[in-house]
Amino acid sequence: MNRRAGFHVGLLGLVALTLTGFSGHALAATECNTGPAPNPPLTGTFTGGVVVNAGEFCVIGGANISGGLRVNAGGVLIVCSTTINGGFTANGAAELIFGAEEIDCGGDVINGAVKISNNGPGILPPGAPSIALERSTVNGGVHLSSNSGLIAIGANTISGGLFCSNNASDLEDEGSPNTITGAVRCKFGE
Fold first, then answer.
1. Residue scoring higher pLDDT (135 or 4)
2. Residue 26 gets which letter from DSSP?
């Protein structure tokens, strides 16, 4: 009887080890470097997330991303009509544009937190924002810290609050107020 019990324990251990081996494989993030127009945007369905590496230029349009979206130092990102599951993170990006009406870019859906820090002054002409989050739905908090350029946050629905610290300028809503559920710890300029 003990021999049979030992066999079952050993078999269960082997099954657990096998399942752990299969479930432990993470999907690699898709790297995005589309370059500026007229190059086509990144479209389609992506699992394992998408990353914009240092100094790369990425345009995403009509995509469905699972696993989040990340921009590394110096990266440039334009996102239009895209669903992002897993949130968005950028640290030291050069330019970030989501759903900007001025460039006929449809709004996005971001399921997860948005965390943007240490963004530069931008690469667009003076007076243009280096961070634009417009006409989008964010199901998570938006955190903006230590960014040096202009920031436009307008016509969004944000669940989870809006938080700012140590940014060089107040936010602009460009005449299109946001609907925000949760705390608001940011100032909007006139």
1. 135
2. P
Of 27-31, 73-77, 127-131, 176-180, the least confident = 27-31
**78-101 average pLDDT score:** 97
User: What distance in Å separates the CA atoms of residue 48 and residue 85, rounded to the nearest whole number?
Assistant: 10
pLDDT attached to residue 27: 65
Contact 132, 100 (CB under 8 A): yes
Calpha distance 61→76 (Å, rounded): 14
Residues 73-76: contacts with CB within 8 Å, 24+ apart? Answer: 73/118, 74/120, 76/52, 76/123
Claim: this prediction has a pTM higher than 0.70: yes
Could you tell me the two tokens for 89? 């993170």
